[in-house]
Amino acid sequence: MNNAIQILLVDDHQMFRAGIRALIDAQDRFEVVGEASSGDEAVDRVRELKPHVVIMDLAMPGSNGLEATRRISALGLETHVLVLTVHAEEEYLVPVVEAGASGYLTKTSADTDLIEAIRVVARGQVFLPPTAATLLLRRYKDTEGDDSAGLKDLSSREQEVLALTAEGFSSREIGEKLFISPKTVDTYRSRIMDKLGLSHRSELVRFALRSGLLKEV
User: Fold this and answer.
1) Which of 51, 83, 92, 217 is at 20 to 30 A from 132, Cα to Cα?
2) How far is CA 140 from the centre of its chain?
3) Alpha helix locations (H) across 50-169?
4) pLDDT grade, residue 217 (50/70/90)?
5) Which strand (E) or helix (H) includes residue 204?
6) Residues 67-102 pLDDT 10s
């Protein structure tokens, strides 16, 4: 299937995987290329298949989804992890972001939000629930880590692009807000990552929070 978003499903419940596969198969330019029922199997399948997106459950026997996400992120592939779990954001959002995932979605929202979440994550952007910025800010604002010094290396326009990226806006949406093209937004984002020494776009969220660039609303 040309230009299809290739997806790996990871969940230890076969019936749930079947339901998600049916939802995905109904979409154009989406292709489920494999399935896994454990974290260890997921890592092996990612190495083998190199999918664009991994839909990852957290609670599985053996190596769980959180550990598998860390290991997949460490592979350095163009594979993005979207966590799909029964756990509310308050329980696992911060560990999931720190593990390198590019998205977080509860299973109760899968029927309405999953397809859009896959599209966003496949573009290399971050898909997080509306409460994410507040939850992550509360986690980071009182920690010892402080990346505010890194902001001095960024221009004012780069800081704007960084903040909007961390808030979950797409390149097109950022371009419309700043009156620049989506391609220019991507160029700014690439330059930001080079300056900050970041390798994953999900790390931009953590930097924006630690630096104080995002404010609680």
Assistant:
1) 51
2) 18
3) 65-74, 89-99, 110-122, 132-140, 156-166
4) very low
5) helix 202-210
6) 999 999 989 898 999 999 988 777 788 888 888 899
d(CA 23, CA 33): 14
Q: State the angle between helix axes of 89-99 and 65-74 in degrees (0 to 180), rounded to the nearest 10.
A: 20
Specify whether 100 is located in the same domain as 195: no
| Same domain? 128 vs 183 | no
Is residue 14 within 8 Å of 60, Cβ to Cβ?
no
For residue 146, how many other CB atoms are within 10 A of its CB? 12
Is there a contact between 42 and 70 (Cβ–Cβ < 8 Å)? no
pLDDT at 215: 54
pTM, rounded to two decimals: 0.70
Q: Please name the residues in contact with 50: beta carbons below 8 A apart, sequence gap of 6 or more.
A: 77, 78, 79
Q: List all residues 6 or more positions away from 21 whose beta carbon is below 8 Å from its beta carbon.
A: 9, 32, 35
